[in-house]
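User: Sequence in, structure out. Go.
Assistant: Echoing your sequence, followed by the structure tokens.
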Amino acid sequence: MTDGSVKGTLYDGFARVAGALASPARIELLNLLAQGERGVDDLAAAAGLKVSNTSAQLKALAEAGLVTSRRSGTRVFYRVADPQVTDLVELVKRVTCDRLPAAREAARAWLGDEGDLEPVTRAELARRLYAGSVLVLDVRPAAEYAAGHIPGALSIPLGELPARLDTLPPDAEIVAYCRGRYCAMSPDAVRLLRGHGYRANLMDGGLPEWRAEGMPVSTA
């Protein structure tokens, strides 16, 4: 290859990966896969997409080397190809909200004011878990909890939380988490808990950030 063709091949590769991210549906699928391995049908239901469309989007991500798959009987399961992929997606989200005012305002509207929710750092949460002084609440869907969760976390999906408030110890210090920094489930859970008199805080980030720091992850 000439120097020009080598450079062209390299930059074509850069553009191919960037192009694979240039779809809201594919960003959401990668966000879901950051929680753990999922089947195509499960991903389609979680993302609100048709199964055929989900398969097509996953194929595009696989062709860019961002996801891998395995077959079990008639089902196909996908996972992110490498933790770098999740890091890349999270970086895209942060840069987007830093550089695009409309996206930043949309994030604020989506998440609400998180400042008063007193986010707990992941390192501090790990310390409190070790000391046994906190109840960690995972408010993601049950399938995501089963795919991977913070050890010792209690699974109560957000939609079930109002009906299960009386199962929580009234004097517990609760820290809730969900899919990541731009997931609204845990902020909503903390507001609900506080509205019913519980001492509740938000974990800074979600399971992908916890995993990225090398913290332990359990599976059901």
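User: And one key feature?
Assistant: The chain has two domains: 3-86, 108-212.
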